[in-house]
């Protein structure tokens, strides 16, 4: 995060402002839905229904416009960071041949270790800069946006029915227990995967082909990441659908007993839907932060070693 702030601090403020604009509109469509079902339809107010529908469309369009601006701005910030990282590697690489000429009798005396380091440098320029720089655009605006949506929606649902707060907690709190543990397991495999791919790149440069052991190890690490990642997604989706089932069951019974309006049930169920996506996006952001932090440390260490070698 220190690197993010150093390289794009002023842009993060602009991204944060757009994120606030997006989550500030999140609860408005829920309230419009509730009013259409409870007030307009029940009272047969045709004109009111039309105006509320127009308002819903207008709010949705404005929200999507904010999202478009946010995503395009994020893309520019991310690509600018990727470009900066690659230029840094280019500058280090440009100095390396001169250093080697001074310390070697001839360039033909390259060793396998030299070739391996060349492969590492190539992997860093081509592939490793991409995810690190890509995270810069979403580093601050993404958690701000998703936490803002969660707080806004939960606050709105709680203002309708107090038990919606308990329902939201039952949906989110268990995930705070198993998600970090599973994410840690993913991080361990991701760090080893980066190191293994660097070795594979070195093998390609030095021998023309990678060793079978490296290929197999990357396959095993990737499959391990897939299994853990999608198992975590399954558990998160189950928690969401269980919460929706409870909302429909409890809300439906209360509506039948005239203790709750149908529009309120619709708003709460819709609100749970609006919780699922931002919570998943927040988990993905945490995953990206953890994995890309590991990649950045490896990246920075490699650049530092090459920089010292060329000094």
Explain this structure.
There is one protein chain. This protein is mainly α and 311 residues long. It has a single domain, classed as ABC transporter transmembrane region fold (Up-down Bundle), CATH 1.20.1560. Helix content is 90%, strand content 0%. It contains 8 helices and no strands. The protein has helices spanning 2-24, 28-43, 46-103, 112-136, 141-160, 163-207, 212-256, 262-310. The longest helix has 58 residues, at 46-103. The protein is elongated, with a radius of gyration of 26 Å. The two termini are 27 Å apart. The relative contact order is 0.13.
List keywords for this structure.
311 residues, single chain, ABC transporter transmembrane region fold, elongated, 8 helices, mainly alpha
Summarize the structure.
The two termini are about 25 Å apart.
What gross morphology would you assign?
A: elongated
The average pLDDT score comes to 78
- The fraction of residues in strands falls at under 5%
Could you state the order of secondary-structure elements as H and E?
Answer: HHHHHHHH
Broad structural category: mainly alpha
Under CATH at level 1, the class stands as: Mainly Alpha
Under CATH, the topology can be stated as ABC transporter transmembrane region fold
Q: Runs with pLDDT <50, length 5+?
A: 97-112
* Biggest beta sheet attributes: none
Relative helix content: over 70%
CA-to-CA gap between the ends?
A: 27 Å
* Helical segment count: 8
What name goes with the CATH superfamily? ABC transporter type 1, transmembrane domain
Based on CA atoms alone, the radius of gyration comes out at 26 Å
Q: How many discrete domains?
A: 1
CATH-scheme architecture: Up-down Bundle
The count of DSSP E runs of length 2 or more, i.e. the number of strands, is: 0
